Amino acid sequence: MAPRKARGAAALAVVAALSVTVGAGPGSAAGSVDPIIATGRLLDSPVTADGSRIASSAVRDDRHLTLSVYSAAMDKPITVEVQRPADTAVPRPVLYLLNGSGGGEDLDTWSSMTAVPKFLGDKDANVVQPIGGAWSLYTDWVADDPVLGRNKWTTFLTEELPPLIDAALGADGRNAIAGLSMAGDSVLALAIGKPGLYRSVASYSGCAQTSDPLGQRVVKTMVEVWGHGDPVNMWGPDDSPLWAANDPYVHADKLRGVNLFFSAGNGLPGPHDTVDSPFLTYGTTRGPETLANQMLLGGMIEAGANACTRNLQNRLNQLGIPATYDFTPNGTHSWGYWQDAFERSWPVLAAGMGL
Question: How much is the pTM?
Answer without folding.
Answer: 0.91
